[in-house]
Amino acid sequence: MAQQEDVFKKLVAHCKEYGFVFPSSEIYDGLGAVYDYGQNGVELKNNIKKYWWDSMVLLHENVVGIDAAIFMHPTTWKASGHVDAFNDPLIDNKDSKKRYRADVLIEDLLAKYDDKIEKEVEKAAKRFGESFDAALYRQTNPRVQEHQAKRDEIHARFVKALNDSDLAELKQIIVDYEVVCPISGTKNWTDVRQFNLMFSTEMGSTADGAMKIYLRPETAQGIFVNYLNVQKTGRMKIPFGIAQIGKAFRNEIVARQFIFRMREFEQMEMQFFVRPGTEMEWFKQWKETRLKWHKALGLGDHKYRFHDHDKLAHYANAATDIEFEMPFGFKEVEGIHSRTDFDLSSHEKYSGKSIKYFDPELNESYTPYVIETSIGVDRTFLSIMAASYTEEQLENGESRVVLKLPAVLAPIKLAVMPLVKKDGLPEKAREIMNSLKFDFKCQYDEKDSIGKRYRRQDAIGTPFCVTVDHDSLTDNTVTIRYRDTMQQERVPVEKLHEIIAQKVSMKELFKKIVE
User: Fold this and answer.
1) Which of 232, 280, 215, 219 is nearest to 52 (CA)?
2) Which residue among 16, 46, 77, 123 is least enclosed by CB atoms within 10 Å?
3) Key word Ligase present in the record (predicted)?
4) Is residue 478 within 8 Å of 466, Cβ to Cβ?
């Protein structure tokens, strides 16, 4: 684990050094859990958003997009349950004065038991070699069974406490299992209490009674209050979906792990409206479609898993997460939820307006059920960066840091480099770049030795480097160098477009999703 944390620190440093992510307002010592995307980060982020958006609205003729405002009428958040129920259970350590989420402390405790079990199994696997039966060992080894029994006992208490919103029991679990503060090492805890995560502000002048409004903590409600507008103006038939990408804001007390948990973040959400009674089929279908979207990037199928929720939100009848193996363990990047008719019924009740859908096939009106797919742009960005960051030892004794980003998402697709800054080579390089820049984000680079330039492009994940040399002037060929293999190939200039286009086309990814 320590080694993984080391890798994570390097990744955070790499993000800053190469213009991917900066601490926000850093010249004023930054702002906790708020980050800015740099010149390469914004390109990668935009490519992720395009990949998601097109996979929704191009591949599904019954999915359309909207862009709702961040500010909404305050009753929206009463109806959605956020004013009353959008809370985190927090606990303070009296010695370190640090505040923690009680549920996260208990999840970390459960993870420790998982680690203990895995270590026992790994030790036994080494001892017994190829004849080792891991499943049988887990069932029969007394030490493994002891750890598993303890884990199951904690887990059962934890799930019950969460579902009962029993704050005293959450504290009791922390006390009973002697959870210590990671900073002070003591068990001197306060009681657990709830804390609402919404940022509030005021609209209008205070003199004439300003209205208290909230920065939205999720983008979904903007879709729900507009669903009938979209349905009517777009003549949409159920089932249909509405997609949206936008900023959301949560006053996270325990924001940590770089851009994994931030106070200002971006969501890509699609709400899919279905006939009541069909929601479980659609839930299953969207689970499969969304997992294919992730796996199509080629970061490694084994890095993804589904995790069903222990505690269902007040609006859900089924919920699962797609988790990705980050350097700090498997973590949620996307949630797929069957939200029933909770949101639409609630908005109907609070607004006093009918927002039922008239189904011409059944000749009746009803409140649709909703399947939600909600994915964090920033978390997806982090998962892609973490999976791509590679330190390689080369045969000649050198080492290199390379970002093996999926070519289709890479910020710069192509670097064009004249071998030397004279003899007409820069002019030829510019000519090549000018012919390709309409289709691909290109970078011109003539500073330093060619080796150093390759390393620089490796570090930002550029899949192709094209070197223009003296032969290029006579035979119109260039050397193209491939990032991952470092192999070089001599190709005619007129072939460049075709070679690059094939590798960076989203079409190939989309084909994998709709298979």
Assistant:
1) 219
2) 123
3) yes
4) yes
Residue 140, Cβ density class (10 Å: 0-12 exposed, 13-18 middle, ≥19 buried): exposed
- What are the Cα distances from residue 86, in Å, to 107, 172, 198, 211, 250? 20, 23, 8, 20, 10
Q: What is the pLDDT of residue 255?
A: 64
Beta-strand ranges (E) seen in 221-293 are 240-249, 264-274
Cβ 55 vs Cβ 293: under 8 Å: yes
Pair 322, 306: CB distance under 8 Å: yes
Q: Which among 34, 171, 205, 25 is positioned nearest to 100, based on CA atoms?
A: 171
Task: Give the per-residue SS3 of 365-382.
Answer: EECCEEEEEEEEHHHHHH
Domains of the chain are 50-71+214-385 (3.30.930.10), 87-194 (3.30.40.230), 400-514 (3.40.50.800)
- Residue-level pLDDT at 184: 92
| Of 399, 404, 374, 400, nearest in space to 386 by CA | 404
Distance CA 48, CA 259 (A): 15
Range with the largest mean pLDDT of 41-50, 165-174, 254-263, 308-317: 41-50
Detail the residues annotated as belonging to a binding site for substrate: 101, 218, 265-269, 372-376
Residue 248 confidence (pLDDT):
95
Q: Hey, how many other C-beta atoms are within 10 angstroms of the C-beta on 2?
A: 6
Q: Is 170:161 a contact under the CB 8 Å cutoff?
A: yes
480 near 488, Cβ under 8 Å?
yes
In this predicted structure, the answer to whether residue 241 has a pLDDT above a threshold of 70 is yes
